[in-house]
# Entry
Amino acid sequence: RNSRTVAISSDGSTLAYLASTGSDTRNRQIFAKRLEEEEFRALPGTEKALDLVLSSNGNDVVFFRDNAWWQ
# Structure
């Protein structure tokens, strides 16, 4: 299964990526930022995500975890 580790909203306003948190590389979380923001922020509830998709305006993220898609 191919998964995305980086996503950019189609309007270019938001960038998101999956990164390992801690020493367990399977424990990944989604981090995101809008272009006008200086730093990425961890998105609560996205722990152990395996894949991600951003909405066209970057306001919503959908991610795959536990054999299901979540929003």
